[in-house]
Amino acid sequence: MTHAATPKTALVVRGGWEGHQPVEATELFIPFLADNGYEVRVEESPKIYADAGYMAGVDLVMQCNTMNTIEADEFNGLRAAIEAGTGLAGWHGGIADSYRNHADYLHLIGGQFACHPGKHPDERIGEQSDNYVPYTVNMLPAAARHPITEGISDFELVTEQYWVLTDDYIDVLATTTQAVREWDPWHRPVTSPAVWTRQWGNGRIFVSTPGHHVDTLTVPNVRTIIERGLLWASR
C-alpha cells in the first residue's frame, strides 16, 4: 500500500505599497508552488506570523510586503519559525524594504534598501519610470555552484537598481554596481548584493533585489532565480 506524499505548506504574506504589485507579483509564483507540491495560504498582513501553532507547520514563507509595519509579536513569531526551520523568500522591497520600523527584522534579513538612483534629473517626469536605469547583474564565482544560480550568466536589466545596506553574514550570489555619474554625490562606484542567501538557526532566507513589478519578475533569469530561491529556502 502506498501513501501520497504529505504536501508542504507555503504561506504568502503580501501587502504594503501598491507600486510593487504585491497581489499580481505573488500570483505569478503561486501556481509554481502548487505545481511543486505546496498547499498555499495567502494573507494580506503579517498578523499570521503571531500564530505560533500555525507557523510551526509552515515550510516556506513567500513575502511581498513593502514599506509596511510589523508588531513585536508578529516579528517574534516569524523569527521563531525561521529558527525552527521555516524558509523565508522574497524579492525587491517586498523583503528588503518591508518593515523599516523594526531593527530586528533588518538584522534577520541581512540587508535593507537604501535607494535606487534614477535617471538624469532632466529626464525625470515624476513617474516610477524615473528610477528605471540599465544595469548589469553580475554573477559571482560561487553562483556557478549554487542551485539557485547555476547555469546563469551575467545579465542586463532596465528597472530599479537597488543600493542596499548589508552585513557580511549574507552569502552573496550576484551583485550590481552603481556607477558614478556627473550628477551623483558619491565619488566612486558602489557595489551592492543583488541576490543573496542567509542561514538563520535551522532556517534559510533568500533575497533577490531585482523584482520591482511583474515586468521585471517575468524576465527569464529573474524568474528562474526566484523560483529556485523559493525551493532552496523551503524546509
From TrEMBL:
Residues 10-233 form the ThuA-like domain. InterPro entries: Class_I_gatase-like, ThuA-like. SUPFAM superfamilies: Class I glutamine amidotransferase-like. PANTHER family: GALACTOSE-BINDING DOMAIN-LIKE SUPERFAMILY PROTEIN, SECRETED GLYCOSYL HYDROLASE. This is ThuA-like domain-containing protein. It comes from Spelaeicoccus albus.
